[in-house]
Design goal:
The protein is mainly alpha-helical. The chain is built from eleven helices and three strands; from the N terminus they run H-H-H-H-H-H-E-H-E-E-H-H-H-H. It has helices at residues 2-32, 39-56, 58-66, 72-104, 116-121, 123-137, 151-154, 170-211, 222-254, 259-283, 285-304; strands spanning 145-147, 157-158, 163-165.
Length: 305
């Protein structure tokens, strides 16, 4: 178990570092350059993933709380609530990113074309709605979380080193699971639908270019690269979500969490927020250009000195 904990800590550290780098990069782009429409969404996703990976390793948050004279029960509820909210936000913002890209690449003759300017106009409203919805949606679940005491006597289900879920009525348990699943399934279906649309659009576009003997290599266009990146993220997210869903649903319905299964679930949950920034960094040429520019300036300053 100690080696597994080391893997989880390394994964969380790597995820936090690369997401922090990506967050700083997008803030720099938004403030100092002409940002793309999806940069605001990606910036928010990077912030969400930083909090998510850190909240997933409960010892980090617990050490922070230890310096404060706060009741253990409140610490557990806060940790559990933050993790639930960030997990929901990750699903929602990833879905928004997929929808926005699908609308962005739509041709002017498409039915989605009329939503291009509306999406840009109401993006802030969409962010406020997504945050408000997830903050309120996860609030009911904190009543069933608290400090871990004794599983054998109180029938609590240990979900972290220090925290557990209190016993709840089976009907309430199923209702909570059904509501959370319904939200996630709806968003996953939307992501898969927009992904299928983007795949069909890119396939048709490539066929048209071959038919017209395009010489400009449209396959290397920034729009296509961005679309392919988002498609990769969506497919990867859906796969990781399904694995996480199977483990968490079985644990909630059976009211039993094995320590190994819990560690595996934490690893699976943190794979997406760790891989996402690496994919975005490798596919965004602006990152390389900015790093080259900074290196050139530093090199010139060093030579002058």
């Amino acid at each position: 178990m100690s080696s597994l904990k080391n893997v989880l800590n390394f994964q969380a550290g790597l995820g936090a570092l690369v997401n922090m780098f990506l967050l700083v990069f997008y803030i720099f782009i938004i403030l100092c350059h002409r940002p793309k429409p999806t940069d605001m969404i990606s910036c928010q996703l990077a912030f969400i993933h930083i909090v998510l990976v850190l909240a997933g390793v409960d010892i980090w948050l617990w050490d922070i709380f230890e310096s404060l004279d706060i009741d253990n029960d409140f610490k557990c509820k806060t940790t559990f609530y933050i993790h639930r909210v960030m997990r929901g936000l990750s699903v929602c913002v990833t879905c928004l990113l997929s929808v926005f890209q699908a609308v962005t690449i739509s041709p002017s003759t498409s039915l989605l074309a009329k939503f291009k300017y509306k999406l840009k106009k109401y993006m802030i409203c969409a962010f406020l709605f997504i945050w408000s919805f997830n903050l309120s949606f996860s609030s009911s679940q904190i009543f069933y979380a608290g400090a871990f005491t004794n599983v054998s006597e109180n029938n609590q289900m240990k979900v972290t080193k220090f925290c557990s879920l209190f016993p709840m009525n089976y009907i309430i348990r199923v209702m909570i699971l059904t509501m959370a699943t319904s939200r996630d399934v709806f968003l996953v279906v939307v992501m898969l639908t927009t992904s299928a649309y983007m795949v069909i659009f890119l396939f048709r576009h490539q066929r048209q270019c071959k038919h017209l003997h395009c010489l400009s290599h449209p396959g290397s266009s920034p729009e296509k690269k961005a679309t392919q990146t988002i498609l990769l993220l969506v497919v990867f997210f859906v796969f990781m979500y399904l694995v996480d869903f199977i483990i968490s649903s079985a644990a909630v319905l059976l009211w039993m969490y094995d320590p190994v299964n819990l560690s595996i679930q934490k690893f699976v949950m943190n794979v997406y927020p760790t891989i996402t920034p690496l994919v975005q960094i490798s596919s965004d040429s602006r990152v390389i250009d900015i790093l080259k520019s900074l290196w050139s300036k530093c090199h010139k300053s060093f030579l002058k000195g």
